[in-house]
């Protein structure tokens, strides 16, 4: 906690003059499809650390367990899910489980961050992505797999695909930043 009582420069307490409601903002870093690319993943980690994100979400396709060593440099906790190309899932889970700030939760994670209800999956099952988007129980749906960055809304639901950290399939290495108060996202080129 700093002198202002906040834990980071991106955590902001807003008091509405109308009703006194207190809202907390959190900046979330979102990544996917790192595909064993250590150099690009280090760039993503550096960007998230520079932005002082409070949480990182990884939408799968870490690929090899050695990628956990690169991701452990994150200053924020990471929650991830497996993608369709993750090979040694047991070792990925074991290595991430040795770090108190990192967890891989299987193929889907439902996460509560303050008032925001988040669904996290890889997205290789397009029908499942669309069903989750239509269910009405989420505020943010994060997926990867396509390697193409996308931000869209379906009613109040914010849907974010951060693209690929790897950058080899599309020629573009990207991550996303999500603001939980504005309920907005931006794609960031690495």
Explain the overall architecture:
- This protein has 190 residues and is of the alpha/beta class.
- The protein has one domain (27-189): Metallo-dependent phosphatases (Purple Acid Phosphatase, chain A, domain 2), CATH 3.60.21.
- It has helices at 38-51, 67-71, 89-97, 126-134, and strands at 13-15, 22-24, 27-31, 55-58, 78-80, 102-104, 108-113, 116-121, 140-142, 150-154, 157-161, 174-179, 184-189.
- The strands form three sheets. Strands 6-5-4-3-12-13 form a six-stranded mixed β-sheet. The protein has a five-stranded mixed β-sheet with strand order 7-8-9-11-10, with helices on one face.
- A hairpin with a 6-residue loop joins β1 (13-15) and β2.
- The two termini are 29 Å apart.
- Mean pLDDT is 88; it is low at 1-17.
Q: Average pLDDT, to the nearest integer?
A: 88
Which range does the strand content fall in?
Answer: 25-35%
Computed over alpha carbons, the radius of gyration is 16 Å
End-to-end separation in angstroms reads 29 Å
Which consecutive residue ranges, at least 5 long each, have pLDDT under 50? 1-17
CATH fold name: Purple Acid Phosphatase, chain A, domain 2
CATH class: Alpha Beta
Domain module tally: 1
Q: Count of helical segments?
A: 4
The class by helix and strand makeup works out as alpha/beta
What is the total tally of β strands?
13
CATH superfamily: Metallo-dependent phosphatases
Order of SSEs, N→C? EEEHEHEHEEEHEEEEE
What's the main sheet like? 6 strands, mixed
Shape annotation = globular
CATH architecture: 4-Layer Sandwich
Strand order of the largest sheet: 6-5-4-3-12-13
How helical, in percent, are the residues? 10-25%
